[in-house]
């Protein structure tokens, strides 16, 4: 069993607090994606704008947490004598023992689970927004397409005909 210095224990405790913030951030993002889908379906522009404002206000907090996590990774990499790129939670687990190792393992497992859920929810939201965009394009095309230029019809003599009155929206003044 490897002995852990007080310095490393302190850094790991601070890292656990940062990871808790990351967990909370992912959970908040999962909730936001659900809200976003609901507002899009309801076509609630005011709530969408409020959600965007809320996200913009909280982005600074998230950036600070990212910087703190990076700083702690650098410190821990120096303390256990490895490169910054090698300093992962899995690597940290190999250096730890006891309760603190279990706490790191729990956070790592929870982060993996939440990241997987976030990826799934992000994909669902992306599909909804893509479908909405496709539907809107199709709707606008059918409303604004003058003379139905995308459709070719043939008369009784086999000659192509294009109708100028087939559009749903007439823009003649």
Structure keywords:
single chain; 173 residues; mainly alpha; Methane Monooxygenase Hydroxylase, Chain G, domain 1; two-stranded antiparallel sheet; 4 helices; elongated
CA-based shape: elongated
The CATH topology is: Methane Monooxygenase Hydroxylase, Chain G, domain 1
Number of separate helices? 4
Structural class: mainly alpha
* SSE series: HHHHEE
Q: What's the total number of strands?
A: 2
Mean pLDDT: 85
**Poorly predicted tracts of residues:** none
The largest pleated sheet is described as:
2 strands, antiparallel
In the CATH hierarchy, what is the class?
Answer: Mainly Alpha
Please list the strands of the largest sheet in the order they lie side by side: 1-2
Summarize the structure in words:
Helix content is 73%, strand content 2%. With 173 residues, the protein is mainly alpha-helical. It has a single domain (6-145), classed as Methane Monooxygenase Hydroxylase, Chain G, domain 1, CATH 1.20.58.
Structure, briefly:
It contains four helices and two strands. It is mainly alpha-helical and 173 residues long.
Secondary-structure blueprint:
Blueprint: H1 6-42, H2 45-79, H3 89-95, H4 98-144, E1 153-154, E2 160-161
Antiparallel strand pairs: 1-2
């Amino acid at each position: 069993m490897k002995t852990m210095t007080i310095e490393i224990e302190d850094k790991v405790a601070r890292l656990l607090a940062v990871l808790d913030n990351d967990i909370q951030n992912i959970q908040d993002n999962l909730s936001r994606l659900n809200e976003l889908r609901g507002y899009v379906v309801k076509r609630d522009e005011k709530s969408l704008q409020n959600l965007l404002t809320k996200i913009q206000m909280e982005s600074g907090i998230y950036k600070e947490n990212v910087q703190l996590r990076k700083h702690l990774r650098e410190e821990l990499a120096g303390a256990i004598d490895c490169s910054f790129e090698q300093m992962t939670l899995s690597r940290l687990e190999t250096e730890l023992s006891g309760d603190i190792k279990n706490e790191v393992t729990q956070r790592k497992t929870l982060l993996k689970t939440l990241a997987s859920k976030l990826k799934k929810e992000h994909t669902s939201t992306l599909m909804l927004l893509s479908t909405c965009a496709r539907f809107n394009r199709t709707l606008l095309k059918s409303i604004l397409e003058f003379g139905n230029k995308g459709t070719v019809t043939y008369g009784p003599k086999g000659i192509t005909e294009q109708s100028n009155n087939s559009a749903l929206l007439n823009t003649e003044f």
